[in-house]
Request: fold
Amino acid sequence: MSLLDEIKKVEKEEAKLAKRKRALEARLKEEEEKNQKLGKIVEDSGYATPKALVKALVDRFSLRAPRGSGISTTAGGNGRRKRTKVTAELRDEIKAEIKGGSSMNQVSKARGISYAVIAKISRGGYDKI
Reply:
């Protein structure tokens, strides 16, 4: 390969790098603008921390907090559901709801019980209680 060919090759690579640098700089600028907007939202919200604002939004709009966010949407407060104590009364209520036309998913969400437990109840897994 001649020196001229190598120079052209280097110039092409420089052009690619310059283009990539411009794209990264544009992304950096967008990210900085986004962070400024979010900072202003938190500041204007009156909440002490961003986490407090997110928790209030999650609670208000019945959203799920992202896993690992440290924002609890459960009664226990530690991000995990409480273990469900299946009683004969609970079993009969759940079976009646499913028989009445509610889906197992609806019952699960309404009662805060895992879908797996609801499915097991509907299959008769707790009939011996």
Q: What stands out?
A: The chain has a mean pLDDT of 88. Residues 57 and 90 are 31 Å apart (CA to CA). DSSP finds five helices and no strands in the chain.
